[in-house]
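Regression test case RT-17, inverse folding.

Input:
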């Protein structure tokens, strides 16, 4: 199949023209097929213990890796700290428009987390530094009816996360990983990390976050990935 130029859901509107030409449609098709096949599912839920050698730390169907594989749609936008901006819209009292200095002016934290990718690798003890999700929320002030966040990225990618999950104390807008600036490949210069969900919920190259009262499934969520993405429940697909 050649590149599909018809409108695809889950892509952020203003970039559709450029992104659709460049994303690896074949890769997207393959992953959609995996979702239909339930690839990676052990069926271990709800008693994952016997399948995980490290049952309290390694979720069912996952294997441990030391490296950090790179997975995306094949477009890795270069964004320097100088041009980096993060805007917020929707149901918030303070729709911020942060540049790099605004981000650096916020209190910073260090967080150590495990990460779990739906493609079955997990990586322990990732050291992140940046602005906590809770600090970010305290600045933008979501309104009472704001229940969902949608992350919009420079490559056209989108993903949705409940505000409740983003409010957990392990969530961070990170600018370093293991003491190095987050690389372009890994979504730098700043990447939200939501450790309790499969890594596809941690969007790379985020430029915009919107707060909604209704859920709005993102790029992979409309292509067969699970809406909730809890690794301990093996919410990979469906
Ligand atoms: N902007 C953007 N973010 C993205 C993606 C993407 O294609 N574009 N891929 C997601 C998927 S499917 C995965 S598995 C993880 C991979 O993150 P990594 O490349 O740092 O391992 O990024 C997620 N975030
Ligand atoms: Mo993925």
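Golden output:
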């Amino acid at each position: 199949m050649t590149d599909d130029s018809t409108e695809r859901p889950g892509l952020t509107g203003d970039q559709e023209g450029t992104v659709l030409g460049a994303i690896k449609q074949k890769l997207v098709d393959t992953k959609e097929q995996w979702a239909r096949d339930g690839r990676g599912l052990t069926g271990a839920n709800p008693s994952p213990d016997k399948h995980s050698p490290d049952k309290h730390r390694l979720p069912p169907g996952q294997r441990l890796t030391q490296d950090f594989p790179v997975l995306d749609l094949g477009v890795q936008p270069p964004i320097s700290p100088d041009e980096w901006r993060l805007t917020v819209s929707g149901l918030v009292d303070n729709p911020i428009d942060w540049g790099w200095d605004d981000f650096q002016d916020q209190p910073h934290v260090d967080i150590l987390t495990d990460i779990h990718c739906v493609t079955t690798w997990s990586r322990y003890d990732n050291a992140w530094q940046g602005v906590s999700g809770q600090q970010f929320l305290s600045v933008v002030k979501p309104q009472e009816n704001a229940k969902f966040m949608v992350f919009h990225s420079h490559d056209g990618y989108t993903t949705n996360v409940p505000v409740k999950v983003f409010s957990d104390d392990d969530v961070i807008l990170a600018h370093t990983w293991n003491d190095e600036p987050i690389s372009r490949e890994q979504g730098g210069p700043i990447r939200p990390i939501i450790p309790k969900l499969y890594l596809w919920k941690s969007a790379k190259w985020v430029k915009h976050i919107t707060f909604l009262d209704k859920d709005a499934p993102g790029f992979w969520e409309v292509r067969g990935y699970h809406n909730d993405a809890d690794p301990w429940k093996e919410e990979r697909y469906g």
